[in-house]
Design goal:
Layout: E1 12-20, E2 24-31, E3 36-43, H1 45-48, H2 51-65, E4 76-82, E5 85-91, H3 98-103, H4 109-128, E6 141-143, E7 149-151, H5 156-162, H6 182-185, H7 192-208, H8 218-227, H9 243-251, H10 263-274, H11 310-318, H12 322-326, E8 335-345, E9 348-357, H13 364-369, H14 381-396, H15 400-414, H16 420-435, H17 439-453, H18 457-464
Antiparallel strand pairs: 1-2, 2-3, 3-5, 4-5, 6-7, 8-9
Length: about 475
């Protein structure tokens, strides 16, 4: 059915319908006063009949206008009314949307990262101004003639929510359910962290060619954001390294507090994870959780991402544990790789040559002294994460006896959270037990890990060891 046209104020000549969003129609017109093309969004009739919705539409438009000075945010020139319906007059961007470009085929990786950086800059500045977008998706990322992103429709999604449209009005969710944060899908208020999640989904789509939970109905996809673990982007068959998986696990964490604190940090980590690695020999590792305390490798420098415990770091700085942890005079074993590892402690940066060996002496006593082991009170979330990282580092050195008490204590504190770190802690405990000959108990931990993060190659390999 043809849409009814509206009569714009006489200032805007030659108006023609060029699009329809969830909240209204979009027209291209000539501003005869200033002699420029503009885009005019007019609130849909079904919403315009509700005076509360029209007030909110105007309020959100005025709030978004405060962001118009940012280079990567769509500029709003005016907020007016026509035919009794509120309208927003905006800059016209001729390059279409990121969604349009994605439909044309695979997006160049460097181009995608540039768009994500520009979007992140806009979102972070909006968040600092106290404004949440609520509907970050490719269709709201508009491109100018220089192929640069301008984010549009700030706050408009909240009007649809407050109007009672929710998931039932055609056009308001079909294009957005795939980008909903878990809290939005549960009907909870959107926060800055919700925008971070939406940006993470956009990044996943641009780099892999599909959304993480694509498929089925919009309701099923929204539910998947709440319940399903993040599918590894590296397994999408597009040549992404496994290092990107840790970035997406954090960006798409089920709880907002576990996501990146800013959009810029998300994109920085994503770009760093995609940089080519230069290591002479690859080390087979257990799944490695993201740690905000792990220094990101400098560009152009290859480092071994080994996370040692607090005591180990302190001793390394003093030169005392080097031989005990990394080499053995009695039985040095075959060397895997030697690297220069840069660590910063107490404001001092030091570079140490580290040799990682296949067989290293157990460090269980040192880790127990640092607070490891199965006993003790419940750890905080951050402490449990750090303990999981320490266990992973020991497993990389084949010190499963040292890793086991750390992993078990971390899992005990994280159990029931459903967080990805609970899955990592369970995997570390299960893998260590299997390596130490206790398949029965080890497999139970693997089951717990798989229940959270799904089937992973590391879990399958660990299971195979038990026959």
């Amino acid at each position: 059915m043809a849409r009814a046209s509206v009569k714009l104020p006489s200032r805007y000549a030659g108006a023609r319908l060029i699009g329809h969003g969830g909240m209204g129609d979009i027209y291209l017109a000539e501003d005869t006063v200033l002699g420029r093309q503009v885009a005019v969004k007019v609130l849909d009739e079904r919403f315009a009949k509700d005076p509360d919705v029209t007030k909110r539409f105007t309020r959100e438009a005025l709030a978004a206008a405060k962001l118009s000075g940012h280079h990567n945010i769509v500029m709003i020139f005016d907020v007016d009314e026509c035919d009794g319906r509120p309208m927003i007059v905006m800059e016209y961007l001729p390059g279409g949307t990121v969604a349009d470009r994605a439909r044309e085929g695979r997006v160049d990786r460097e181009e995608a990262l540039d768009w994500l950086e520009q979007t992140a800059a806009a979102l972070d500045d909006a968040h600092q101004a106290g404004i949440v977008h609520r509907d970050v998706k490719p269709a709201n990322l508009l491109l100018d003639e220089r192929n640069e992103v301008h984010v549009g429709d700030f706050g408009i999604a909240r009007i649809a929510d407050e109007s009672g449209a929710g998931l039932t009005v055609a056009g308001t969710v079909l294009g957005t359910a795939g980008y909903l944060s878990p809290e939005q899908a549960r009907g909870e208020p959107a926060t800055h962290a919700s925008d971070i999640y939406g940006l993470g989904v956009v990044a996943y789509e641009l780099l892999t060619g599909g959304r993480p939970f694509e498929g089925g109905s919009s309701t099923e996809e929204a539910a998947a954001h709440i319940h399903q673990p993040v599918p590894p982007a590296s397994e999408r068959g597009v040549g992404l390294p496994r290092s990107v998986d840790r970035v997406f696990e954090r960006a798409l964490a089920k709880e907002g507090a576990h996501r990146y604190p800013s959009a810029r940090e998300l994109v920085e980590d994503l770009r760093a994870s995609l940089e080519p690695e230069d290591e002479p020999t690859r080390i087979r590792t257990a799944p490695v959780p993201y740690s905000r305390n792990r220094a990101r490798p400098e560009r152009g420098r290859s480092t071994v991402p080994i996370l040692l415990g607090t005591l180990a770091l302190a001793a390394l700085a003093a030169g005392g544990l080097m031989a005990a942890v990394m080499t053995s005079n009695d039985d040095p074993g075959p060397s895997v790789v030697t690297e220069n590892v840069t660590r910063t402690q107490g404001g001092t940066t030091a570079t140490t040559e580290v040799t990682v060996t296949e067989q290293t002496p157990t460090t269980a006593s040192a880790t127990a002294a640092a607070g490891g082991g199965g006993g003790g009170g419940k750890l905080s979330y951050e402490e449990a994460k750090e303990l999981t990282d320490e266990a992973t580092a020991l497993m990389r050195q084949s010190d499963y006896a040292g890793a086991l008490p750390l992993a078990e204590r971390a899992y005990k504190s994280l159990r029931g959270s459903g967080d990805i770190y609970e899955a990592y802690a369970a995997y570390n405990a299960g893998k260590s037990l299997i390596e130490l000959g206790d398949c029965k108990k080890g497999l139970k931990y693997l089951d717990a890990s798989e229940a959270i993060q799904g089937s992973r190659s590391e879990i399958r390999e660990a299971r195979a060891q038990c026959g």
